[in-house]
Amino acid sequence: MAIEQRLPVVNSDDGVWGDDLNAFLSKEHYNADATLTPGTSTNGGHKTVTIQAGTGTAAPLTFTSSAGTLLSTAAPGAVEFSTNKLYYTTTTPTRMTVAAFPAGTTVAGGDLHYADGTGTLVTLPIGGTNAVLTVIGGLPSWVIPAGSTYNYGLTGAIAAGIVNY
After folding, report:
1. What is the pTM assigned to this prediction?
2. Does residue 34 have a pLDDT over 70?
């Protein structure tokens, strides 16, 4: 007979407290084995973690320090937060920075994304007709070359690569 996955009930579950408690814990946790390395998934670690939705006044997940210390050695699967940057670590293990835009930022087809002089991710909207991407002051910029003309409307082999400057 399957044991219901719930906490034991006081004055009601005499003799089955251990069974009820183990069934409840096994719903979200792996079975513990004291002979295994602490912190491994086979020694009482979580099977899954479900985070409830936030409220208007409380976030469902919050990292409390804006200047936390990252792990001295990157650990596969780790999620870290330090100095306003969010990181995750791959299985290789390589620590990756999560690139993100401020809330409300909109992007359109053809836009480019780059880090500005402060390391903040910004959007460079697509350039206009005949604009060429270049670098000015160490940052990408669209410019229309002076004196340039383009041969549009050509067909066949001629259209494959003729541009007059």
Report:
1. 0.53
2. no
Distance, CA of 11 to CA of 5 (rounded, Å): 18
pLDDT computed for residue 12 by the predictor: 74
Query: At 135, which helix (H) or strand (E)?
Result: strand 132-136
**Residue at 16: amino acid letter:** V
Structure tokens at 124: 């460079």
Beta bridge mates, 87 = 80, 97
User: DSSP string spanning 88-128?
Assistant: EE-SS--EEEPP---TT----TT-EEEE-TTS-EEEEPPP-
**Which residue type, as a one-letter code, is found at position 122?**
V
Three-class DSSP category at 22: helix
Region 24-28: what's the mean pLDDT?
68
Whether residue 74 contacts residue 94, with contact meaning beta carbons closer than 8 Å, is answered with yes
